[in-house]
Each structure stands twice: as structure tokens, then as C-alpha cells.
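pasting for ref
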Amino acid sequence: MNSGMLVGPGYSLALAPGFTVAESMPAMGIYRILPPGSAPWDRPAQVQIRAVPPVELGLLLQNVYGVDNPMVAQMNAANLGMVSVTGMLPVRQVQLPQGVGHIREFEGLTVMGLPVRVMEIVIVSQQAAVELVVMMNLFRWTEFAGPCLSLIAQLALAGAAPAPARLQALIDQNRRDQVEYQMVTPGQQPVPLTALPTSVQGITVINYGTIVETGNINGTGIAIGSHTVSKVE
């Protein structure tokens, strides 16, 4: 099923062309969507969005911040079809156009042995909250990071004034082992979302020289500066 607009309690999300809705429960505001190039049978990348009722928000944030506990991390990974957790980062709070964002990242292996990055992002406005869970095959993040993370810019939450935002990839000549993705809003400092590795298991995923030469990563424009987020290790 293809849809240009997803709607749930307290939010709406405009989908770019090429996204596919794989599963949906509109009344609860739950959708699993696939970016262009991700097929339902192997899902090298997928995004789940769900509305978070006010009564659940505290418990959800407690779980997000509790992933430092290995048992909690493993349980969350198992719920996503992963067999192990291989690395994680502490939760970060960022100010997004829609409200406060709580970002948790970890990596692990699927049952097929493929390395994946998981980003859990809870965004809270004055009147609504949503949870976004982004999962990507790390060997193919250059295809999917831009489209998946751009969804944040397309998200509208009740109680939050609309603000134009765009995604950019930041390259740091002193950190050639990673690429940082940022959300950019006019008049505001860029907000770091994540950093992704330029090589995975010894295999080069993307070359810094290629990034500079092309000026973008799968359509996401680049900037040059200093990274503030480290990749998961």
C-alpha cells in the first residue's frame, strides 16, 4: 500500500514518493513503512511510527533510558527480530522543531547475521508524542539513512508550530570513520541525529573522497565541519 500522508492521534506524516506502508493500524496511529529500495521480504530498512498516549509516555521514556541495562537492551532487540546487541550509545536529548527528542541508538545482528543500526526516537510536543523506530542494514545505510531520517522533517505534531527543516550529512576530515546526519532549521543550530560508519566489518561502505566529489549521499546534501556525535561501538 502506498500513501502520501499518514495520520494518527496527535500527528501527521507526509511520505515522500517511493515509500510503502507495509503494515498499519490507523486508529492507534501505528504504521510500519519501507523506504524506496526496501522490499517486504527482507526489509534492509524499515521505520515504525506510533502515537504515544499520555498515560504511556512516562513508561516508554523509562524503557528508553533503561536500555543501558543489558537485559532491557536484549529484550528490545529481540522484539525487533535481532539475536544480539553489539554496541550502544547513551540516550541523547535534542531540541527538534516539533519538541524535545529523546534518541537512543544501538547495533546488533539479525538472525541472518547481518549488522543493523536501530534508532529509537521519542518526540514530545506540548500536546502529543510519537515514537519512531528506524532500523537499517549497516552495509546499506547510504541508501536508507537520508530517506528514513528525512521523515523527522516531515512530521507534524499537535501543539507544535510548523517549521521548515531539512536533513544534511556532515563530513569531518578528522573523523573519516563516520558521517554525521543533522537536522537543519533556519535560524537555529544544526541538531545532530546520528553518526554512521564509513566501513562495516572491514568493508568500505562509502569513501570520503566520493562524498566530496558527488556533493551528496543518495540525494542528501553535505556540509563540512566537526562532528559532535560518535558512531555506535
